Amino acid sequence: MRSPRTLEVWRLGTVNYLKSLKIQDKLVSERKAHQIPDTLLSLEHPPTYTLGKRRTDHNLLIPQSELTKIGAELHYTQRGGDITFHGPHQAILYPIISLRSIGFGARNYVETLERSMIEFASMYGVKARPGNKCETGVWVGDRKIGAIGVRITSGITCHGLAFNIDPDLKYFEHIVPCGIADKEVTSLRRETDALLPSEEVIHKQLITCLANAFSYDDVVWKEDPSVILDTKDVE
Amino acid sequence: MALRLLWASRVASHLRISVAQRGFASAVLKDLKYADSHEWVKIEGNKATFGITDHAQDHLGDVVYVELPELGHSVSQGKSFGAVESVKATSDINSPVSGTVVEVNKELTESPGLVNSSPYEQGWIVKVELSDAGEAEKLMDSDKYSKFCEEEDAKH
């Protein structure tokens, strides 16, 4: 009989990208040292382009000098995956979880992230599907609605998924999203006529889909984000 | 020795085809030593060759990129020395032994998929000169590693 598994959830609002990396680094160390249980960060970023470990900056279609003009930052990261955009009205989840505790490898983990997003989309009558080979992510037809980029160190995950609720899709025109040309990017707003509830409700639904997909017994909703945002190690 | 490895690779390929989704019985080779982070190592005198196991490559998915260390780089047992990317995930690879990198498998730059198709042979990653041959005692033999994999897979 296995012991019950708990997921602690922090809803952080809009967080600068670099700050979110520092928060994740700290949580990964704490998770590795068994000081915290599996933890999930739910947040949004201001307009930000990010690259993965392979540094595929040829997929950024405008000069880096133009980025400030459009109000966006660019960051290089150690996650998997290609170039992507994060911005307001895109729901981001960063699970900091121990894959070894559940005997998962990268493939199972990513597939479960995909299932979480597909389940969430279905709540609004949107039929999404996982990507084909080499197209990890979540698609509605040939249009990408959810992206994944993950890093696993010592069996602990960081980075995660980004689901388009209603972001300004024009930002995606400045990149070859995820390195896949000729495929559109879409959003929940575009794919459904359903009345969308508040973003707070939407984020909670997405989090719940993830918690179910990973079979957590218990979800603890942390109330005070300043605990994580204002720690002295993170500026 | 080489013939047995060839046979084991064929067994591994066969297993991959016949055991699709559940309870994957990955190939484990008798002459190698194994770390609990799923790397294998072959020790020959003061030199060691290592890579990731069949269990590891199956759990990773299709490898699209391998980050190799520099020649002369020091590696430490249990510490990360590089990474692989698969399914939009970068995963650390840990060194099963301590030593100095004397050769890296440059084939993996053009053909990272060798890690999946031939994890114990053509998909080898690094060769080192050992700094502490005694460290190999801390690793698992093939029987222990097989059991370890079964226990891990039973967790979900």
TrEMBL record, chain A:
Name of the molecule in the record: lipoyl(octanoyl) transferase
Family under the similarity heading: Belongs to the LipB family.
Residue ranges occupied by any BPL/LPL catalytic domain in the UniProt entry: 34-218
A Pfam cross-reference name: LplA-B_cat
Species of the source: Camelina sativa (False flax)
EC class: transferase
PANTHER family hit by this protein: OCTANOYLTRANSFERASE, OCTANOYLTRANSFERASE LIP2, MITOCHONDRIAL
NCBIfam families reported in the protein's UniProt record: lipB, PRK14345.1
Species classification: Eukaryota, Viridiplantae, Streptophyta, Embryophyta, Tracheophyta
Pathway: Protein modification; protein lipoylation via endogenous pathway; protein N(6)-(lipoyl)lysine from octanoyl-[acyl-carrier-protein]: step 1/2
Keyword Thylakoid: no
From TrEMBL, chain B:
Cofactor: binding details: Binds 1 lipoyl cofactor covalently.
Gene coding for it: LOC104786041
PROSITE patterns associated with the record: BIOTINYL_LIPOYL, LIPOYL
Cofactor(s), names only, from the UniProt record: (R)-lipoate
Native source organism of the sequence: Camelina sativa
Keyword Signal in annotation: no
Keyword Mitochondrion annotated: yes
Quaternary structure note: The glycine cleavage system is composed of four proteins: P, T, L and H.
CDD domains according to UniProt: GCS_H (cd06848)
Keywords per UniProt: Lipoyl, Mitochondrion, Transit peptide
InterPro entries linked: 2-oxoA_DH_lipoyl-BS (IPR003016), Biotin_lipoyl (IPR000089), GCV_H (IPR002930), GCV_H/Fam206 (IPR033753), GCV_H_sub (IPR017453), Single_hybrid_motif (IPR011053)
Pfam families: GCV_H
Its job: The H protein shuttles the methylamine group of glycine from the P protein to the T protein.
Family assignment from sequence similarity: Belongs to the GcvH family.
Domain Lipoyl-binding: 47-129
Name of the protein in question: Glycine cleavage system H protein
Compartments it resides in: Mitochondrion
